[in-house]
Amino acid sequence: SGPYTQSTLNVTGIHSVTTVSKVSVKAGGSISIPCLYEPEYTHHVKYLCKGYTWELCSYSVRTDQPDSSGKFSISDDKQQRIFTVTINNLMMKDSSFYYWCAVEINLMLFVLPQGWPQLFVDHQEITGFNGEHVTIHGSYSNTGEIEWCRLGRSCVKKPSGSIDGTRVTINANVPKVFTVTMSGLRTESSGWYFCTKGGLQMPVHVTVKERPSTSKDHSTIIKSSIYPLTFIIPLSLLIFIVMVASFIWFMLRRHSKSILSFHESNHQYLDCF
């Protein structure tokens, strides 16, 4: 479905899964692969199988049997109906196999000995806030048209378009570099996406959250207004005390001058006699 490469295979009596088909990874790195399944298989065991053919492949990791070596990990989001397989510490020999996501959906994994992968994104996990936007930064060394797709849904070609009501803008004006901006995010925008170019895909998971409450900012404003008050009140009290003391000192001095003047007047009066 669509102009991009995507394999969806069915096996009678088991289940069907949709995933990306080709990814490139730098040697020593890791990759997370999202696998979308149908609602009727929510409670089924999910797994990754490795081999040249489906009939000869062997289990690498299962949701009911974690991998103790740390090479593989798997998690199942039953609400989104997506299970995610992560392959760590990838080596050149890993690209010699096909990887099967639950059923006959082969994943070709290209591990490069040096340099950047043919299709690369800075982060496979990105978080944004409701009503705002996120930007995915990537690079490439292969040919072909860049598209941004939602797993199991529609795709957008440059320069822009929309997916499920979210505006998508693709900028590839700089050679070998591209950005994808998703604007007007909604909670429903959360999920797995992937960029595709020249037959390669790179998955990206987008999480959309509500921006945290500004109550913390209000408390900061209140605190900042309290701190000056704790300084102003003692200062005002000190000024008041100084003014009262000055007034008392002034009155006492005035009173003492009055008494002195009185005594001097009496002394002059007595001298007249």
From TrEMBL:
Chief localisation class: membrane
Transmembrane segments: 226-252
Keyword tRNA processing attributed: no
Name this polypeptide is given: Immunoglobulin domain-containing protein
Pfam family, any one: V-set
One GO CC annotation: plasma membrane
InterPro entries: CD300_family_receptors, Ig-like_dom_sf, Ig-like_fold, Ig_sub, Ig_V-set
Keyword Transmembrane helix: yes
Domain of life: Eukaryota
Subcellular localization(s) per the UniProt record: Membrane
Domain annotation Immunoglobulin: ranges: 20-112, 123-209
GO MF terms, alphabetically ordered: transmembrane signaling receptor activity
Keyword tags: Membrane, Transmembrane, Transmembrane helix
The organism of origin for this protein: Dicentrarchus labrax
SUPFAM superfamilies in alphabetical order: Immunoglobulin (SSF48726)
